[in-house]
Design a protein that fits this description.
Strand 1 and strand 2 form a beta hairpin. Helices cover 67% and strands 3% of the residues. With 157 residues, the protein is mostly helical.
Length: 157
């Protein structure tokens, strides 16, 4: 069974695109702050919420690459895949990639949340925003991906 765009609810196209744009905007800002060394706007530097501590910690890098760059790259790809034009494409592998990237991103987010809460005992509100967007995106894609990937049976069977 080949997926078709008719199987994608309009609300899912709109929601995934908006979530991807939000994730992209947050990732751009976190990357900008990382490379300029500027403090994140409105984020305290003392107490539980401490963006500077989180974004400059050893856990803010993965295999030597800043996590902000990984988020930016991920959301560049997800924004393209979740755009209305990306949803119109009928290539099966695009639907697989969309879901796999979101699932992999969520797994990485779980590690980052662990690092923030358990290792650092501090959180970053902008990072948390990306985490929430990633979770919401995975939820929406979990609702629509089975039909896109041909994992649902027709009622006639």
């Amino acid at each position: 069974m080949s997926p078709t765009t008719a199987e994608v609810p309009r609300w899912a196209v709109v929601v995934t695109f908006i979530l991807s744009l939000i994730g992209l905007a947050l990732s751009i800002y976190l990357t900008y702050a990382h490379f300029t060394g500027k403090a994140l706007t409105g984020c305290p530097t003392t107490g539980l919420v401490n963006c500077t501590l989180v974004t400059t910690s050893a856990q803010s890098r993965f295999l030597g690459v800043p996590v902000a760059i990984l988020g930016l790259a991920t959301y560049l790809v997800l924004t393209a895949l979740n755009s209305p034009w990306g949803w119109r494409a009928t290539f099966y592998w695009l639907h697989v990639a969309r879901f796999a990237i979101a699932a992999g991103s969520m797994a990485f987010v779980l590690w980052l949340v662990y690092a923030e809460i358990i290792i650092l005992s501090h959180v970053c509100e902008y990072c948390t925003g990306v985490h929430v967007v990633t979770f919401a995106l995975l939820v929406v894609l979990t609702l629509v991906s089975p039909a896109q990937l041909g994992w649902t049976r027709s009622r006639a069977q």
